[in-house]
Task: structure prediction
Amino acid sequence: MTTSSTRLIATALGLALLPHVALADGVTNRAIGYVLTDKHWAVYQTPNGKAECPNGMNDGPREQFKILFPEDGTKRTMMDTQFVREGENWFPAENEPIAPNGKPLPYYEPQGKTGVGLNLDGKVGPNDFTSPAGETGIDNQLYRAVGCVAGFRGPDGAYTFFQNDYMQRQIFNRVLIEITDVDDLNNDPDVTVTTYRGFSPLLNSANGKDFIPGGTQKIDERWGKRYIHSFKGRIVNGTLTTDPADTKIPFADTFDTNVDLTLKAARFNLKLTPTTAEGLIGTYLDLKEWHHHLAINWTTHHASYGQQSIPSIIRAMRRLADAYPDPVTGKMTAISAALDVKFVQAYILRDAKKGPVAAVPAATAPAER
Amino acid sequence: MRVYLNFLPAVVSLALVACSAPPAGRAPAPQASAKDAVGPGPMDVTSPQRLRVMSSQQYTNTLFNIFGPDLKFDTRFPPLVRTGGLLGNGGAIAGVSDSQLEQYQRTAALVAAEVTNPTHRTFLIPCKPVDEKSADAACAAKFLPAIGRLLYRHPLVPEQTEALVKEAGEAATRFKDFYAGLAYALEGMLISPEMLLIAETSEPDPKRPGHQRLDAYSFATRLSLFLWNAGPDSTLLDAAASGELYTPKGRAKIVDMMLASPRLESGVRAFFDDMFGFDDFATLAKDAETYPSFTGATAADAREQTLRTLVDHLVANNGDYRDLFTTRKTFVSTALAPIYGVPAGRGWVPYEFPEGSPRTGILTHISFLAVHSHPGRSSPTLRGKALRELLLCQQVPRPPANVDFSAVENPKSTIKTQRERVNLHLANPVCAGCHKITDPMGLALENFDGSGAYRTTERGAPIDASGNLDGKSFTDVVGLGRALHDHPSLPTCLVERVYSYGSGGTANEQSKPMLTYLNQEFAAHGYRLPSLLRTIAMSNAFSEVKPPETRTASVPTQSSQTK
Result:
């Protein structure tokens, strides 16, 4: 199990491709690669949303603006209204603003104990969810913050749709994983998972609806070194789980932006087949980074389509943050979350002329609450 | 828009016949000399003297060779009729319809506009007019006859040049634009019968009294279309003009020059694209739900993959033709790799399937497997038929019109594999006669589904890929490749196809001695394609012709009637 993952992908681009030794389960030279084709923040949804969001969906920027500044004849300046709201996107106050009716703006969290995600801290706490399959201790406080925001709900919430669409369409958002040291894709007690940024388009199926396995992805070795991290893992009955490790993935949501997302103490839980890998990436999100990421990617214009009030969302996230306490203030700086992901198998290539690609091994302390 | 009434009498409802002498107004070929040598090969065999319609690709290649490949135009000429296994042979029995003329005219207008536009005129037109807004006969006279010689494949007589210059001048005056006038004249040349119709003319062979041979320009054209799939270039026309082409050394020198030219690749690609029936790609469609990995890009690249493999093996490496059916070397692209289950770099990348791989030979290329399958399933019958007809030049009878397909097309059938399906045919005496010809070797390809992807089972049942080809049994596709490699008809089929392609028509009874000679030579030279091409190009039969017995159009037109 000591073979370096980097030596297993020694096929050179631009040179004659070497024959490869493939097993029946799709593993070639003890390795198999996958490329990310779908990613959504894991949000538990019942068919009509009534169970988890009995109060309906939260208001977005336009609805909140109307409540705060009703057309009641009051003379207001742009400075007092729009600029204040835009400023709140970047500097949200601790509490929801008070509306003319004397009440704070409402903001609804999902109700119930059911949620999707992974048990990141190994504990079963009072705020944890239970998965639909019955697993307790699910850490996904991001869901509690955004679960009743229309833009975060599938399949056509504006944010959940576009952050996935741009990932699919833009090559610089390409996320690869390679599982190496694989002796058996169904059961292997010791495998290594390495993350990369890819450099190639996804392959559409003939009907245009899906992405097909068997494509080839080149590793971005020049600008993508910061995305290369390795995880130790295991495969049990076809499900890959890894130990936690920090990594980054490209996560641009809009037109030609280029944003990284840090996944703290991330871990994979993927059901593997020779052609697909589907499941969850559980992680903690840095509040500041995520706030910056959302505000810079998603303008009020965009947020309005999905009724996503950035000030309200960030307030909720700060309130629900559950890990990485600030050593000085004791305030939590990260929030648990899960990405619902789908990968298809891909051949991962690198340029042999450039030598091995260095993967950064896991060096993450367990998240603490 | 130009109207070329003078074109119509020559081509409408055409029964194409060639001329034993150059038509009026055409420059005669250089005088034949008794010192000139004839080529080797059987001396009592001639090839027919023909009149052919230029194909789209020949037209395109010719213009690219003359004006450069950056010219932007398209040639959507109607397809020719496949005759004797080749579309190329269809050029000799084609007619030219009114709608076809419209297509020619459209392309000619595009080309003329491109050549004379400000981007290209600076380097394609060898002079500048004194005044761009008026006619300039001197400048037009430098450009038009030089280009006309290449387009018409022989020099222009002075009267032709004068007429073209006059036409360009009148148009320039009318449009108040020298280049518009030049484009007008050029468009006329591009749609002229002399450009579009390849009319072979012959002359008495000075070395062999009583025999006719192609005149030097016709021979240059035949050589060029054969080896380059384009009209002759200036060097070739110079050799024709000087008489060098009909000297022993000169002919060898020219043929060797042509075989060494990068343009040979175009010729070889065109021939195999034709022989392997790759025009079927134009209508190839796969069920997207059944074969999600088979996209439009897959189809385009599948054709290109096989052509690249052919050129690399036969031309670049001068390989044995038969080894094409056992080689594991090929090229892959991003669009093909998912079906082959291999990685692919950017663009086309050489790839060799590992030893023991079932991907051996071009029969296991997607181009063969997918084209000769149904949209939603493989077909041992279509594959076997294609193997027999395309590669062995054998004719498989068409199925009778009243075939009962209910047993094999029953959607509720419990049949799992194609072998079970075709066995139903074999149980029916009406069907069995032909299916015994096609299915035993087609079944050896059953490890590949209708998209060309490898499989070991079909609907959960293991696939039995055993079969036989004319007495040779095998257990899988690797064995089929070897059996085909050793099949005596494989090289003889190629010889027949190449010879008929080069001479412009289906080989006939009279061609037999020539084919026998070529088969012997092909085998003696290790089944190398360049050697075969050279043997044909140097043979007596390739230049000695039998003139047509009549020059009368089969259907007289109004303008052909004498008053």
